[in-house]
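Anyone up for a design puzzle?
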C-alpha cells in the first residue's frame, strides 16, 4: 500500500475509485475570425447559458455553497468582461482565443486588487472554461457524475464545482493544493464530505485507482488493504454515530466545562445550528450578510438581520462580531479600494476607528435586536491590536448595555491579553488570522498552508498565553477559528485552558464528543506534548499519543 500524506480537514473515511474533474476545453487552432459585434453577442449568449446553469445548481444548494454558485454566475455576466472580449476581436482573433486573453486581463486586475478579489481568479478561470466549452461544443468542464461512490482528486477545486458536489456520489475529496481555510475545506465541511488537502504526490494518482481517504489523519491510501479499510470505516462510523448522539453541554469526561458553540453567518445558518446541541453561537460573522450591498444597510435593516439569528437561538448565547470588512472580505460601503497590502491594512475594527459612525450604527442595531432576545447577547470586535482599541470598543458597547469582548487575532493583542482583559468581559481567539500574522504567511496561500496550520506550536503557545491571562482574570477565552473544528485539536485547546470552542455546526458535535471522552488532565498532557513538538505533524502525533 502506498500512503500519501496531506492535511486532514474534514474527519471521516471515504473510499472508492479516483475520479478527476473533466479537463479544461482546448482552444481550437483554426478558429474563424469574428467581428467585435458578432463576437460580443455570441460571448454574451454563451456566458448567459453558463450563468443560468450555475444559478440552477445554486438553487439546489444552500448556505455558502449556494452563495458561491450565485456569485460565480454573476461573474459570468460581468459587463466588463464582455467589453474586454470585444476589444480583443476584430484583429484576426477567434472568439475562444479572445475569451482567454480577456479573462487573463481581468485576472491581472483581480490579482493586483489582492484579498478576496485575488481569490476570485479561480472562479474567473472556471467561468472562462465553461464559456469556451459552450462556444466550441466541448464537454462542460467540472466534476463527473460517477456511477459508484468515488474519491474526487484534483489539484484544487473550482469553488463552483465544490459547491455543487453530491455527497451521495463523492465519498471523499483529496487535493494536492489548498489549506485549512480554502474554499474546498469550507464547502466539504459544510457538506460533511471527508477531505484531505495539500496532499503531495496526488497528481500522479491515476483515474480508477482504488483509494481510501482518511480525513482525520490526512492520509490518502492507494489500493488499501480491505481489512484495514473496514477497520477504519467502522471506527469512523462509530465516531460519526457518537457525534450524532452528542447531547452537550460541552465538557471533558471529568466534567470540566468547555462550551461548544457554532459559527454562523445568517438566520438560516443559525436555524441549522439550533437543530444541534450546541450551546449557542460563538461567532456570528456579520460582514458576510452584506457582501453584496453597495450601500451601508440602515440600523433597522441590520437589526432585522441580527434578530433572525437571535430568534433562531432562543435562550442560547450569541456572540455577534462587528463588521470584519476588508482584506479577504471587502464591503463596497466600508473598505478602501486600493490598498497595497489589504491584510495589513484597513480591516476589521480599524474601519470603525476611522469612521466611528459605522461602528456606532452597527452597535445601535445590535442593541436594538438584543432588546427582544431571550438569550445572552455578547458583542466583539475583530482585528484589535492594542489595549487602547479595546478600551475604545468596550466603552461604546457598554454605553448600549452590551457585553463587550474582543477577538485576539493579532499577535500584539495575544501578547498583551492580560491588559486587554482588564477592559472587556471576554476574548475569542481567531486562529485563522492569528496564525497568518504570527507565522507571516497569507492564510489564502496554498503554498504556505503548512505555516498557517493551526497545529503550529507557535500558534498553540500564543493560545496558551491568552488562556492563562483569561484564567488569571477569571474571564472566558474562546477559540472561534477553524482550529476549533478539529476534534483532536479541540482537546488540546481545552488543555491549554480555552473555555469555549466555536466551529461550523456540522463540525461542532464531533468536537463535543471528542472532548467528552477525555479528562482535563489528559487534555493538558496532550497540550503540553503538542507545544513541545517541532512542527504541526509532530504536534498531531504527540497529541494523539497523549490522548491514547
Ligand atoms: C479567525 O481569524 O480565526 C476568525 C474566526 O475570523 P475570520 O476567519 O472571519 O477572519
Ligand atoms: Mg479573522
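Challenge accepted. My sequence:
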Amino acid at each position: 500500500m502506498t500512503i500519501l500524506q496531506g492535511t486532514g480537514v474534514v474527519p471521516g473515511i471515504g473510499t472508492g475509485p479516483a475520479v478527476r474533474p473533466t479537463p479544461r476545453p482546448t482552444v481550437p487552432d483554426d478558429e474563424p475570425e469574428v467581428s467585435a459585434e458578432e463576437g460580443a453577442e455570441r460571448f454574451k449568449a454563451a456566458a448567459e447559458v453558463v450563468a443560468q446553469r450555475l444559478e440552477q445548481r445554486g438553487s439546489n444548494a444552500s448556505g455558502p455553497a449556494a452563495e458561491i454558485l450565485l456569485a460565480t454566475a454573476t461573474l459570468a455576466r460581468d459587463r466588463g468582461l464582455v467589453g474586454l472580449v470585444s476589444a480583443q476581436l476584430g484583429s484576426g482573433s477567434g472568439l475562444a482565443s479572445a475569451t482567454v486573453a480577456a479573462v487573463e486581463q481581468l485576472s491581472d486586475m483581480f490579482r493586483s486588487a489582492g484579498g478576496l478579489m485575488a481569490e476570485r481568479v479561480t472562479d474567473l478561470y472556471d467561468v472562462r472554461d465553461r464559456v469556451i466549452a459552450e462556444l466550441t461544443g466541448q464537454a462542460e468542464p467540472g466534476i463527473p457524475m460517477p456511477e459508484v461512490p468515488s474519491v474526487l482528486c484534483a489539484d484544487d477545486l473550482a469553488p463552483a464545482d465544490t459547491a455543487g458536489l453530491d455527497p451521495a456520489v463523492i465519498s471523499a475529496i483529496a487535493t494536492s493544493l489548498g489549506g485549512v481555510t480554502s474554499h474546498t475545506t469550507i464547502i466539504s465541511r459544510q457538506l460533511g464530505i471527508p477531505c484531505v488537502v495539500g496532499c503531495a504526490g496526488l497528481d500522479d494518482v491515476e483515474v480508477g485507482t482504488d483509494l481510501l481517504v482518511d480525513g482525520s489523519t490526512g492520509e490518502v491510501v492507494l489500493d488499501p488493504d480491505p481489512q484495514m479499510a473496514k477497520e477504519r470505516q467502522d471506527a469512523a462510523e462509530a465516531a460519526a454515530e457518537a457525534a450524532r448522539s452528542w447531547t452537550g453541554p460541552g465538557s471533558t469526561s471529568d466534567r470540566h466545562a468547555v462550551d461548544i458553540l457554532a459559527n454562523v453567518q445568517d438566520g438560516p445558518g443559525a436555524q441549522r445550528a439550533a437543530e444541534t446541541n450546541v450551546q449557542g453561537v460563538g461567532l456570528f460573522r456579520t460582514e458576510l450578510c452584506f457582501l453584496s450591498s453597495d450601500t451601508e444597510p440602515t440600523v433597522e435593516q441590520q437589526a432585522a438581520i441580527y434578530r433572525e439569528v437571535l430568534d433562531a437561538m432562543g435562550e442560547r448565547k450569541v456572540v455577534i462580531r462587528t463588521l470584519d470588512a476588508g482584506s479577504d472580505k471587502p464591503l463596497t460601503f466600508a473598505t478602501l479600494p486600493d490598498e497595497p497590502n489589504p491584510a495589513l491594512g484597513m480591516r476589521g475594527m480599524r474601519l470603525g476607528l476611522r469612521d466611528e459612525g459605522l461602528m456606532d450604527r452597527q452597535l445601535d442595531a445590535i442593541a436594538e435586536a438584543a432588546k427582544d432576545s431571550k438569550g445572552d447577547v455578547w458583542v466583539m470586535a475583530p482585528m484589535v491590536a492594542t489595549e487602547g482599541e479595546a478600551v475604545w470598543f468596550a466603552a461604546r458597547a457598554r454605553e448600549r448595555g452590551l457585553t463587550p469582548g474582543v477577538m485576539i487575532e493579532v499577535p500584539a493583542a495575544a501578547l498583551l491579553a492580560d491588559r486587554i482583559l482588564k477592559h472587556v468581559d471576554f476574548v475569542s481567539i481567531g486562529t485563522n488570522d492569528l496564525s497568518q500574522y504570527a507565522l507571516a504567511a497569507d492564510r489564502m496561500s496554498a503554498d504556505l498552508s503548512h505555516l498557517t496550520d493551526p497545529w503550529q506550536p507557535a500558534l498553540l503557545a500564543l493560545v496558551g498565553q491568552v488562556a492563562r491571562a483569561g484564567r488569571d482574570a477569571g474571564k472566558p477565552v474562546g477559540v472561534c477559528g477553524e482550529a476549533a473544528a478539529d476534534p483532536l485539536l479541540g482537546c488540546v485547546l481545552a488543555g491549554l485552558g480555552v473555555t469555549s470552542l466555536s466551529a461550523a455546526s456540522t463540525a461542532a458535535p464531533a468536537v463535543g464528543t471528542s472532548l467528552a471522552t477525555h479528562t482535563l488532565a489528559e487534555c493538558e498532557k496532550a497540550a503540553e506534548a503538542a507545544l513541545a513538538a517541532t512542527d504541526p505533524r509532530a504536534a498531531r502525533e504527540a497529541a494523539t499519543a497523549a490522548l491514547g
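A detail worth pointing out: The chain has a mean pLDDT of 91.
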